[in-house]
Amino acid sequence: MQQQQDIELKYQAPEEKFQEIFLDYQKKHKENMIFDSDELTTIYNELQKKKVYLTSYIAQGGYGCVFEAKYNGEIVAVKCSKPKFDKIKEEEKIMKLLKDTPYVFKSIEEFFNEKNSKYYQISKKYSCNLKDIMQSFFDQKKTLPLNQIVGFAIQMSTVFEKIQQNNLIHSDIKPENILYDSQEKCFNLCDYGESKSFKDGSKTYNLKGFTRKYAAPEITDDNGLFNIKYDIYGLGIILLELTLGKFLEDGDCTFIRNGKLPNYISKNALYQDINQIIIKMLEKMPQNRIDSFGLTKQLNELRLKLESQFIYAVKEKLDFTESNLMISKFRQSFLKFNYTSKQNEVRLDEYAFGGYSNLSKIQECIAKRLVHHLDLYFGYNNLGADGSKNIQMSLEKCQNITSLNLDLGYNNLGADGSKNIQMSLEKCQNITSLNLDLGYNGLGADGAKNIGMSLEKCQNITSLNLSLQQFNQLSIYLIYFNYYICEIETQNKWVWRIN
Prior knowledge:
By secondary structure, the protein is of the alpha+beta class. The protein has 15 helices and 19 strands. The strands form five sheets. The chain has a six-stranded antiparallel β-sheet with strand order 4-5-3-2-1-11, with helices on one face. Strands 12-13-14-15-16 form a five-stranded parallel β-sheet, with no helix packed on it. Strands 6-8-9 form a three-stranded antiparallel β-sheet. The longest helix has 26 residues. The radius of gyration is 28 Å and the shape is globular.
């Protein structure tokens, strides 16, 4: 039993990182996180028992925290929340109804912890949400291209059609609940925990989870009824923000709910056609508001109109081959949304150390932790071959490393020292990114050969920065491994080239 527990808790939780996350959240938001640092440690260990290894903390949402993790060899997202059993049961039922629908968030696995005090949801990792993308564009005083706004709206209306067919309502349409899938280059609607089944006569006061800014006017009517048109109103506000190039304030949305929409419609002639659709989505009276099928029809008509205008324009200016290529790309732009983002996350598997005198503590730390990214700054320590042996022993304990920054400049390693570094790198077969500074170490030709031999065996490397300054005993040394060619030149000219 003890042996099984040792396997399950293979890695020690990064408690100091959780403490920093907790304190940073307090400082920024003037309130506590849903889970304190001790609970975050418990989450780490509970998931590890399921062979789910947390690699970064991404964010806190309304009901829990989201992490990146490694599970079954794949990078996934894990959401941990304090369970609301009725909400979870309702969400599971709705997800079954929508399981074959495109542009819908799908989980890989869900489970409770042993005490039923936490609920875990594993899914593919999404790059960001729509709010992040909007913020990025708005900060630059930009709006999204019209074709991509239309394409996004079609994706959401496709989901709404299925929701309407099943007599459902999402009830909390907002940019944070629309996730961007960078692999498929599309959007997925998520968070169905507040979704409802409705019948004729369902009342809006039954809606508990909603964001007032994106809520339809009927939310304030005690006798108001709800159906898919409630969700369409929320999407209409999002489209309005996309065309305006800014987020609306809560007060603005209150004015719009009270019939002041004309004051907020974009005056840009480019948006003339989509403005007409937005007006139908934001009708104050739900009976006058467009439904999902009508919305999809009008959006596709606008898409075809934009395609026709584009085709006419390019055929006048380009030859047959070039125009066909451009037309194909334009059509794809309605289906595929290209956006590159970097999430603001806290890596739980990243460690940086300086000061060779602390090596024993460093060795103890990295031996117990899950380490994928490691920075070691040990330059100017005159380590010699014996010191490099200690470095070798440290690195051999980190065979999960995918990214390594190793600064050993000015350490008098010599050829024997480079041999130790060679042996350690050969153990780290998962490295994809390597920054290696071995400058001013008197490596000689044998030392360069040792480093070359180690790189030859690191076949997963796609990014290499190699510094071997002041080595001038070898004119050229070529290393071929896989499809990558590393050409090392002397006389202080070093080139890394990928062909």
